[in-house]
Give the backbone structure.
Amino acid sequence: MPLTETRTLIGPRRAASAPPAVAAFNVVTLEHAEGIVAGAELAGAPVILQVSQNTVAFHGAVRPLVTALVEIARVSSVPVALHLDHVEDPDLIRQGAIAGFSSVMVDAGRLPYTENVAETARQASWLRQHWMFVEAELGYVGGKESQVQSAHNEGVRTDPGQAADFIASTGVDALAVAVGSSHAMTEQTAHLDLDLISRLNEAVPVPLVLHGSSGVPRDELSEAVRAGIRKVNIGTALNVAFTDAIRQWLCANDGVDPRPYLHDARTAIRDVAAEAVNVVSSA
């Protein structure tokens, strides 16, 4: 299937038959991407493959990995879009625009509000000229070194009125909001402010994005989609499954060939992705 654009999956022109929300998974290795797409195919729903700035730094360059992702998308039986996630480096934003991504998250959420608006608007203006779908963040999801560590501190959650002003001032196409989830959670113990999601959905004219979804119980994730979330980001849950599968194989087997334990790790990612896609797409 041809590579799909993010805007066709969550934008205002998405098909009437499209699912209410789309799961977006963070890719670290080729096995991540293969497992994610296999899971989406099992669920029979679209998916977004995300590459973060940290992952680009790990690989040393953006083009080799994104080239592989494009090929994985082309042989998939479900629509697959590519998204460049949590980008603070303007040079990487420009590389992403020509590398095969159809959307970018401009991450200036660590900055004070006025600076966040100015930087996001500057990058969004350039990206729109290159037909890119732009996501930004308002509020502090937490769990990252550049942000406050708690998703529950006073004043960290996204204010609906400020969100409306932010969209009007920056012109971004999607907004990641702080509503109780947190990055890097390894257990599903987060509790979302569903009323706040509903108010944000009423206040802004663009799709809402939930970061840190690995830590959200699946029934609550369904409620969040019903309240207005349109893109659900998942990363840590995949890495937990990936690492556990490798650890179990190495504890039970000898050998130096990485293919057997990477096979198990890829299968574990497939299963986690299939479950999450089912939850998100059927909510």
